[in-house]
Predict the 3D structure of the following.
Amino acid sequence: EALSPARNEFGETSVLTKRSRNVVEFERLEYIGDAMWGATTSARILSLFPGKDWLGMDFGWAFGILRDNIESNVNLGAVYDCLDVGRLLPHDVQLGGDKPKADIMESICGALHVLAITLRGSSCAATSIEHALPSGALGHSLH
């Protein structure tokens, strides 16, 4: 595998293999997907229960628990299984548990988010959240 120098944002040079570049790209998409999954989940909870004062003392803790459970590796692993994402992977890839499945689902969400912004020609991440929800679900603009 060929090695090529690359510079990070600090101007430091490092040698990356094609495999290590792919890992970095996967981790970036996973990071974006995790953020988008969390933002979309939070927005959806708020739209499903508009009468709740989620930021108040009575429900603030419940919001965190609900969101964290929806975003859990177990649930993302279940989404992975439900969508049969494993069929897209090479046959020799064996995933051990929900964490790798959750990471893959987050990277898919990240890739879809990046694609949506690219196709729209927009740099506003909030726009894709609004379009992922039913019309008027947020009740206000995120811009």
About this structure: The longest helix spans residues 18-48. The chain is about 60% helix and 5% strand.
